[in-house]
Fold:
Amino acid sequence: MAERVFCIDLGSEYTKVGLRRDPSADGQLVNDTGIEDTDFCYPSVIVVDRSGPSPVAEFGKKAAGRKASNGIEVKSNWKQDLFTTAGPDEPTATPLETFLRSDDLTRLAGQHGISPAQLGQLRQMVTAARELLTSTGIRPVNRAAQKQDYAAALAHRFFHWLRQEVLRECARLPSAGLNYADIPVRVTVPAFAHGADVTTNPGCRLLTTAVTNAGWRLHPTLPVVTEPYANAIGVLTEGRNATKKGKADYGKLFARGPLITAGKDHAKYGPYRAVVIDVGGYTIDLTMLTLRPDGLLSTDLDRVFDVAQKSVPLGLSALDARVFAVIPPEKAAWLRGQAWQDFDGCRVSLYTEMKPIRSGTLGLIGGSGPEGNAIRECVEQFARDIAVEVQKFLPDFGGRGMNELILTGGGAGIPVVRAAVLAAATVGGRSFIKVHGPELKKEAGKLVNELDARFTRGGTAVGGASLYFEPSLAGSA
Ligand SMILES: Nc1ncnc2c1ncn2[C@@H]1O[C@H](COP(=O)(O)OP(=O)(O)OP(=O)(O)O)[C@@H](O)[C@H]1O
Ligand SMILES: [Mg+2]
Structure:
């Protein structure tokens, strides 16, 4: 059992760090200076500035304020490269080989007076060289593997920086005598369908290796949990931790809410289900925790809930890509060229407020004309696509059970998305006794828990640091 733990939720856009600084201290977010500022969200951005005599790396907020230009490289969205493996069609092709085989090269060769015979010879030579290489046992790496290796190197640098930041912030916390540098860490990962054991996934291994190489010590018994599971626990417990007779006190953790009621009288109220839908920058994460009939009495963490979870790469960066494709290319290029932090504001204007933005000399992006309509249609289609995923994921509840619905992630802040998700979750035989999410309207006869950014954005990090995930403490209702 770890008495204390950090939890890093590496977001493709923002990284959040949770902390339980004593066995039963409530979970908190590191660098939580006030709910308006969301300073606990560390931009997962790295800038390499090569404009001076030697390259300088910048991270987080500082990096997020820089624009890419000559000599300034902005590295963002590298989380997805960690988890992307080679496609089945080109398992080992290098970028150069792909180019050599491409029609683009045939066209270029024509333009530059290279005859088809010469091009054919070049291609044959490369194929022969590759065969020679294979016979030596050397495997040429493919593009996805190269990107993955590069992302792992970025992750290492990022976690090293993050550790300094986190320890600096912790030094300000009122806890005399505690050595924060000794506290182990748990990391959360997307729940892609890679089999039951996420720790065997290559992306997870790269992530935990980067974390340890950067100086963190992994939690001894449960170093990795999935984002959706941690998110569910974070929101349902709201970070509460408490023990009773040396065990996690579930009654206090879950505030004697619907979970406790249904868990204590399964025949009358059960089953209890918590559905979490997190619309993030890279993925939407869908989770359903179904409390086992005897779950609250279990001393084995794996036996408290049946957990169904799925991560689909349909986050806000997918919406951005669709929008870039329907607006004039120069406006898309202008948006892409924005400093990372300013692009956040563009998203809020275009997707949430549905207001146009001014793009220097290019005029307005969006608005009430055809361009604005095209963007709105992208947002609506994105919302419909998410709704389809929600429908595919959730079973029919047959009108039974005590169920809670939790909406989180930056994307849940977009009203069109939120409405589509709520509608898809609550059709057919599915109903929820309590709904948690941002900006929810109170409705007569329904329990609504309006979540602030600490939980819509930080729920995964807070949940991952929960006492709930200390297996040796599990099992006291
Ligand atoms: N009201 C809003 N309207 C539009 N976009 C928003 C709003 N609120 C937040 N966002 C965007 O949501 C994005 C995703 O935030 P979030 O913290 O959920 O992603 P993440 O955890 O980094 O991603 P992932 O979990 O997929 O790796 C932010 O980068 C921000 O631009
Ligand atoms: Mg996230």
Remarks:
- The pocket of adenosine-5'-triphosphate (ligand 1) is lined by residues 11-14, 79, 280-283, 315-316, 344, 347-348, 351-352, 409-411, 413-414, 457 (CB under 6 Å).
- Residues 98 and 200 are 30 Å apart (CA to CA).
- The chain is about 40% helix and 15% strand.
- The longest helix spans residues 143-170.
